[in-house]
Write a structure and sequence with these properties.
By secondary structure, the chain is mainly beta. The chain contains 1 helix and 19 strands. It has one domain. Helices cover about 10% and strands about 40% of the residues. The strands form 5 sheets. Strands 1-2-4-5 form a 4-stranded antiparallel β-sheet, with no helix packed on it. Strands 3-6-7-12 form a 4-stranded mixed β-sheet. It has a 4-stranded antiparallel β-sheet with strand order 8-9-10-11, with no helix packed on it. The longest helix has 29 residues. The protein is globular, with a radius of gyration of 22 Å. It starts with 11 loop residues before the first strand and ends with a strand.
């Protein structure tokens, strides 16, 4: 699934045909056997993941660096009747890192905590650029409540869609029952991180925000908006912020060619691509 792109970054090849993509770190402890009335000790999900590079000639996989990622806290328990209960706690506004490869084979690690960039050159040398001057927006109590309310509505819509799909395919009994496991339903309960545990400031970006263009620049879709459209920070090869570009509403950058940008457009009834020239 990490080769699909999207929130995991855009998988790509470096200049020597090696595949670079975000992987998944191993859990830190083993699963404990099921026992009635005793919570299941799941493997601890790490809050970081490796960016890896695969060489098809040597079949070697190596790690380029680590990225801070969102972590879902999952708890499972089994009642005396044998039924399983799964509770997943999700943070709707996590502070994460992102990454992108530039056309010269160097890799940008965009750090979410203070919005700076660590650069890994093709020669293996690391360098860092200072934190970006960004209009940080404080996460007020009012905004926290609004975010959690919006996230709860989205979770409820997902519950309703899942229930509808289960109802459509079920021929009797509980369609979420999995053969070989005791109990009935395995449908998880989704809950959100408490407001007190949300960050003090709105994160500068979310996962999948960074892209490299065809001319060696780095684009980062930020959390800032202008007239309802997303704002992208653009960095040159030296890591300097050279531009801030606002795109029209409901548009996201899908890719680049020399001198042009392709934008995905989400309308009410369709999705399409638009092409725009990048100003010199």
């Amino acid at each position: 699934m990490f080769l699909l792109g999207g929130p995991f970054g855009t998988p790509t090849f470096d200049g020597t045909s090696r595949l670079v993509y975000r992987g998944m770190a191993k859990a830190t402890q083993a699963l404990r056997p099921l026992a009635p009335g005793v919570p299941v000790q799941l493997p601890v999900e790490p809050d970081s993941a490796p960016l890896v590079r695969f060489d098809f000639d040597t079949r070697r996989l190596d790690t380029l660096g680590l990225l801070k990622v969102t972590r879902v806290d999952t708890k499972v328990s089994q009642g005396n009747s044998g039924a399983l209960s799964i509770v997943m706690t999700i943070n709707p506004v996590p502070v994460v890192d992102d990454w992108a490869m530039l056309n010269d084979g160097s890799v940008a690690f965009v750090r979410g905590r203070d919005y700076h960039i660590d650069w890994l050159g093709r020669d293996g040398e690391w360098r860092s650029t200072p934190p970006v001057s960004f209009p940080w927006e404080r996460f007020t109590d009012e905004r926290r409540r609004a975010v959690l309310d919006s996230a709860e509505r989205a979770v409820q819509r997902d519950r309703e869609r899942a229930a509808a799909m289960v109802g459509a395919v079920a021929s009797g009994g509980d369609a979420a029952t999995r053969p070989g496991l005791p109990g009935k339903s395995l449908a998880p309960t989704i809950q959100l991180t408490p407001a007190s545990e949300l960050p003090d400031y709105v994160p500068a970006f979310v996962s999948g925000a960074a892209r490299g263009d065809a001319e060696g620049r780095l684009w980062v879709r930020t959390s800032a908006t202008l007239n309802g459209g997303a704002v992208y920070d653009v960095f040159d090869r030296a890591g300097l912020l050279i531009d801030r570009i606002a795109v029209p509403p409901n548009r996201y950058i899908a890719g680049f060619a020399v001198g042009v940008v392709f934008m995905g457009v989400l309308d009410r009834d369709e999705a399409r691509l638009e092409l725009a020239r990048i100003r010199p």
